[in-house]
Design brief:
By secondary structure, this protein is of the alpha/beta class. The chain is built from 12 helices and 9 strands. It has a 6-stranded parallel sheet, sandwiched between helices. A 3-stranded antiparallel sheet has the order 7-8-9. β5, α9 and β6 form a beta-alpha-beta unit. The protein is globular and about 55 Å long. Bound molecules: pantoate (PAF). The site of pantoate (PAF) has 10 residues, from β2 and α8. The site of pantoate has 10 residues, from β2 and α8.
Amino acid sequence: MRVVRSIPELRTALRPSRREEKQIGLVPTMGALHEGHLSLIRRAREECDEVVVSLFVNPTQFNEAADLAAYPRDEAADAVAASENGADYLFAPPVEAIYPEGFATEVRITGPLVDTLEGAERGASHFHGVTTVVTKLLNIVQPSIAYFGQKDAQQALVIRKLVADLDIPVRIELADTVRDDDGLALSSRNVHLHGADRERALALKAALDAAQAAHADGVSDATTVATRARDAMTPFDVEPEYLVLVDPNTLAPVAAIDGEVLVAVAARVGETRLIDNTILNGRQ
Ligand code: PAF
C-alpha cells in the first residue's frame, strides 16, 4: 500500500487504471479506523481493482473546535489497518492540499435532509462541510464506487442526494453498522468513552432494541414506539438529543409505522456525542 499526500500524485498513480477502465473504489474516512471502516475496505477490495482509502479529518464539518481538536488521530495504526485489509492507496493529504489558501467554494444541499436531526443539533454547516469535502474527494479519486456506513444514515442520504443532483458518476454503496459484542455501534469517538460512560453508551442500542420490540409487539403508533425507546434509555441515565421515527428516504416524521421507518437517536454520554439508528420494517 502506498501513502499519498498530494492530489497530482494520486491522480498520476490512478491514471493507468482509469485508462484501462478498471473499477476504482473509494472508502472516505477521517481515520481512527475501526472494524466498521475495515469492513468497508474489505468490501471495496472484493468489488474493485484499485482501493483508495482517504484519511482526512475535515475541519469544515466540525461545529466545535474542541471536538476537532479531540478527534482521535493515529495515522501509523490506520496505515497498517488499511493495508492489512486490502487498500492499495492511503490518501492522507494535509489540510492545505484540500483547502489551499484562497479556497472559496462550498457545496451545499438545502432543505430537510440537512436541516433536521444532525443538521438541527450541529448546524447545517456540518453537512455543508461534508458535501464540500466529499465532492472534492470524488473529484480527486473519480471512483466507480464509494463506500459509506449506514450508521451515519443522514450523511448517507445527503451524499446520495449530492451525487444525484450534481450528476457525479459514482455508485454509492452503504454497509451495515458494525457493533461491539454488547451492541455498541462502532465509532471513532468510542475511544473517548471511559469508565461508566462505556456502559452508559449502551443506552442508544437499548432504545433501538426497545423500538424494534415495540414494533414486533404490533405497536404501530410512532409516538408510542418513541416513548418506549426513550424509556429504555432512562436506566442508563442518558437523555437523547433526539429520538425520532422518520421516513428513511426523506427524514420526514412519521405518525405510524407503515412501510420502512428509520429510528434515529443521538445522545451525549459524558463528553462524547454518539448517534445510532435502526430500520423498522413495517411489512414484517
Ligand atoms: O463519515 C465520515 O467519516 C466523514 O463524514 C467523511 C464522509 C469521511 C467526510 O469527511
